[in-house]
Amino acid sequence: MPEGRLLRDTLSDDMKERVQAFEARCADLMKKFDRRVIIHTEKTVQKLQDGKIIKRYGKIFEWLKAPDPTHNYDNARERHQEGTGSWFLTGQDFLEWKERPGSLLWVHGIPGCGKTILCSSAIKDITVRCKGDSSAAIGYFFFDSRDAQEGLQQHEGFIRSLIKQFALQCSVIPDALVQLYGEGYSWPSLKYLQDTLRNILAQFTHAYVIADSLDECSDNSAIPDQSSERTRVLNWMKDLTCWQEFTRNVHVLITSRKELSIERALQSLKAVEVCMEGDPVRRDIQEYIDNKLLTDGQLRFWKGKAKEIRAKVMEMSDGMFRLAVLQLDEIRSCRTARDLQERLENLPHSLHETYDRILSKLSERDLQMALTFLRWLSFSARPLKLDELAEVTGVDFESKPFPRFYPDLRYNPDIILIVCSSLIVTSSDGEAKLAHFSVKQYLDSSSLAQGIGFDISEKASHSLIAQTCIAYLLQFDSTEVLSKEILKDFPFALYAAQYWPIHARSGPSDNADALQTLIDVLFLADSDGAFIAWVRLYDLDGQPGFDMERTPKGSRFYYAALAGLPEILLALLERGADINARGGAYGNAVGAASAMGHKRVVRLLLEKGADKDGHNGTALYMAASRGYEDIVRLLLEKSADVPAKEEEVGNALRIAALYGHETIVRLLLEKAAGADRQEYIDRALEAAVSRHHEDIERLLREHGAERNIHGRPYGGARQVVSSSSSGWTTELPARGADVDMQGEMYG
């Protein structure tokens, strides 16, 4: 008999249990370590493979701006309990879906039942299936309303991400993607993106599309129209099933809550349904509980109560994985047997009740800080790292005459996770986010106000965030304080510089005075140190990134228009600012406001006598190119008094046709007149044809557009369509047009 076995037999029963628990804990840690090593290795290999393609086609992928869902996947895999989810992966529904092209599988369940973890298991299974098989590929996506990365909540972000993922799995970069990029450095239309994805999917024998948490894709149920992101996804699903390629090679798997709009759409598409409820889910939850009772040091202390703990948590969690996790967290903090008994008798019945308890246990000071962090994670414009989040605590709102930033008030970043307990998680690269979609719903609901008497409203939150950003920037009141170390010493500087205008415009009018005071200091102070420091940290005028030598290309008046600040514009006008001063990328203030979509500012500037033509028609051109219908109307209404230049309307017509803005095309057609009207309409037709905007093509033909015309001095259909007056040039090779048709000048 081995010596180790003889030694173990001499131990007391209590010591034997401790040794067994220690061995189980070691085994669990090794599994977690192995899992992390596997994840890291797979990511490294994938990065090396992707890197070869990205190195060659980096500009294309950078231009595509595809959201990255890998952080969500990695986080889900780290939280996965080994042994759970096997019922689904070995079930008939999943196995048939995996083998049969043209199949649509919908997994639905209650909040917190483990859909995201299950989805990550499906992704891993299919990823293994595609390894070594060049004819099979996978693209996945996690809709995530907790994430400030807007692309993770939008249909277009979903499509862009799929395009990139499937393109990286092609042996060579797909022609469809190269063509998409080659037809101009502008933003392609959604239809064009979807057509590109379709062409890429057709290259595989098996193309697996997996999307988690469709219910977290934004939806306005009060106005269920085409503007709803969720409606766009569901309509795309419908179109996808109509593709000939779908029945040949595409497999789609969706997870979500069972919400009516999703249920109706997917049932109409004959989706196979898998409901996450009943014994399979309960067995998974029990597997998780048993593992924690055996391997968690604090829970293992109550081994004599393990059966009672398991039974009570199973009963109270009622099929909700998330609730079981939080209830074990509650039990983990028990210090005595009496504590444990009281806790078991009073476990929370819901996630919202659990969150109330977590916050109610905090001291008043920590509660205020926790709510501050939760506010930021709910409404920040992009994901924040812990060290950035810690900086926001350094602003003293009691400081007079306005809030100021004091470095010695900053929190230790590690304290954030302690204060916020189970409400916040961090990714492997240090980004913080709300721990679960249910936390976001809790903060958005009346439960927070009813539970602890605090309300995190969206508008008030944006105002406070904007105030924090500006107060942070005002510490750089001299350009001399900016150095190469600035971003290291003040990690929140870039966020504050880039995003404060967005938060300021989203704030409420009832808190305007406090915010306006800070904006006044930034724009109206006698010293321009803080203003220049802001521009050097992030220039709204198309020059992102920190540059210690950068100088503003426009006046403060120009930047106020660019940021959408009407009150500052009025104050500067009273001080004698030139409303038509030239400068900046958009020529002048009205051009900048039109380019950024600030309707209120455009109206104000026009009322105060701004030249609507701006810099050679830049205002109308930019408003038309970016689809700002209301601003186009404003500028054209102004033309009733001062007629628009023919060239100005012609250029705007062409760019609106290029980007698929049909309503704007109609508006501009009413204004297109003069000797060159035919020329501009024909150019608009070329642009519409090049991007497959069939409705606009039909509209232009109704107004006399002709596809190819002999004798005009602009060459054939591949001729560069340019705006010589505005400085924008876009290559437009027309599809379907007679590309060999020549004009007199270029024949």
What report would you give on this structure?
InterPro entries: Ankyrin_rpt, Ankyrin_rpt-contain_sf, GPIID_WHD, NPHP3-like_N, P-loop_NTPase. The protein has 747 residues and is α/β, with parallel strands linked by helices. The protein has 4 domains: 15-277, P-loop containing nucleotide triphosphate hydrolases (Rossmann fold, 3-Layer(aba) Sandwich); 280-349; 357-456, Arc Repressor Mutant, subunit A (Orthogonal Bundle), CATH 1.10.10.10; 511-705, Serine Threonine Protein Phosphatase 5, Tetratricopeptide repeat (Alpha Horseshoe), CATH 1.25.40. The strands form 4 sheets. A 5-stranded parallel beta sheet has the order 2-3-4-1-5, with helices on both faces. It has a 3-stranded antiparallel beta sheet with strand order 6-10-9. A hairpin with a 4-residue loop joins strand 11 (721-723) and strand 12. Helix 34 (629-638) runs parallel beside helix 36 (662-671). It starts with a helix and ends in a 17-residue tail after the last strand.
Name the poorly predicted regions: 44-48, 221-226, 709-747
Per CATH, the architecture of the largest domain is 3-Layer(aba) Sandwich
CATH fourth-tier homologous superfamily of the largest domain? P-loop containing nucleotide triphosphate hydrolases
Examine the coordinates and then state which fold CATH places here, giving the name of the CATH topology of the largest domain.
Rossmann fold
Q: Biggest sheet, in brief?
A: 5 strands, parallel
Domain GPI inositol-deacylase winged helix: 368-449
ANK repeats: 615-647
Region (Disordered): 711-732
Biased composition (Polar residues): 720-729
